[in-house]
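User: As part of a screening pipeline, I want to sanity-check one entry by hand. Below is the sequence and the SMILES for flavin-adenine dinucleotide. Please return the complex as structure tokens so I can compare it with the automated output.
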Amino acid sequence: MTESILDGGAVDGLRAAMAGDVMIPGDAGYEDACKVFNSMIAKRPALVAHCATTDDVVAAVNLARDRDLEVAVRSGGHSVAGLSICDDGLLIDLAGLKGVDVDPDAHVARTGGGVLWGEFDAVTQEHGLHTPGGRVTTTGVGGFTTGGGYGWTSSKHGLTCDNLVSAEVVTADGRVVTASETENEDLFWGIRGGGGNFGVVTRFDFRLHELGPIVLAGLALWPIDRAPEVLRAWRDYVAGAPDELSTACVVLTAPPEEFVPDHLKGQAALGMAAMYVGDPEEGAGVIQPLKDLGPEVDLIQPMPYTAFQAILDPSAPKGLRNYWRGEYLTGLSDGAIDTFAEHAPEVRGAGIPFSQMIIFRIGQGVSAIPDDATAFSHRDAEYLFHPISVWEDPADDDRVIAANRAFAEAMRPFSTGAAYLNFTADGDRVRDSYGAEKYKRLVAVKDNYDPENLFRGNQNIEPSHTTGEPALA
Ligand SMILES: Cc1cc2nc3c(=O)[nH]c(=O)nc-3n(C[C@H](O)[C@H](O)[C@H](O)COP(=O)(O)OP(=O)(O)OC[C@H]3O[C@@H](n4cnc5c(N)ncnc54)[C@H](O)[C@@H]3O)c2cc1C
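Assistant: Here is the complex for your manual check:
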């Protein structure tokens, strides 16, 4: 494959056609382009198209299609499954598609396909606006939005894909099309939860909501032996709390920071992240019952929204080995809590201190959207179980991954059986995660926009002619 690309004049042709850089092995920048968030993924494309414009993306897509190349598309490179890089083929890197243009009157932000969430928040917050986005600033808008996207404010405003008003998409045949409620509606439905299956999204237009610049938010910590009791109290309280209250609980390793009491430092602890999506003064009374649970560390206080959006950054450095799962829970029964509290400290300890065993409370902002409105599924789940294992030494791969999988197996009686694909390291959960009917509808969109499956470096929806299975008529 590499030879045929390099011998055919394709590299020179693509260089001439693109405003952005084209890199091959040995070029400055090529090795950096091969590095993705999860260091378990070590792949080397033959060619990297560092796109700066939509036309660059068109040129790269046309080359890939005409030469039958493997394609990987990258926005922020955070796919833990390693879906934004390939061996031998063409990496279409959108990192040059920057730019966030805010229309404060229309409450819309036109956003380049390679923008990272920290960049998005910085610009939109200048206007006191936001859309639900990544909880780590270096995640890209591309994979995040096309896969759904849960942010801290989703409990109130829905998923990121629910806040997509319109998108510009380069399809497999090299056309540049608009997808919205009134243009290419099937494509618009598919890119909101169906991943990168239908084309390369070069621009996202997001609906914006007022928030900040100051929000009431932060983290709290309890000793691990209080986990069963605090988790029950949390569950009971959030069930009746307003949508503005966004929370998650996590078993983690208490950091060696000054604000952490000595007896907790380096130990397993129960953490809680909380944010009030609204006026901080109104939020004080809503958050107080969680503070009344008596954490030993309470950092929940008024702070800039952008600071809370960056609060997890130090715990998510690029370049470590990662294995993640994202399982929807049917609820949070006492059995689920006890199983979680029993296994989480040990599974956390199998990796290094960045490992975190999380349960997110999802909220009604997500469940209020009808299930058939977008390709995204499982809106009715109230909780998402998200064990993140992180480690450094390849010799530990089998042990750490086995511990994480065993944890997910122990939680299986409490899970719906479906996964949040954006959090999922394993590539075999696609059909189950959409369900049979929605999958058929996704196949119909695939048949319409990418019948030869050029875009298959993703949580893949296969076109009907390759599987013989019918799409939705
Ligand atoms: C540290 C960290 C924090 C995270 N936090 C959250 C969180 O708070 N909430 C949440 O829901 N998820 C979160 N995730 C998961 C995240 O949603 C997925 O990893 C997502 O794929 C990342 O988007 P990206 O653009 O960085 O991914 P990439 O790795 O660049 O791409 C992932 C997939 O999307 C496709 N893709 C990317 N851009 C485009 C595009 N413009 N058009 C078409 N296809 C495209 C790629 O081809 C690939 O298949 C987090 C992940 C990490 C590593």
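Points to compare against the pipeline: Residues 265 and 319 are 25 Å apart (CA to CA). The longest strand covers residues 214-223.
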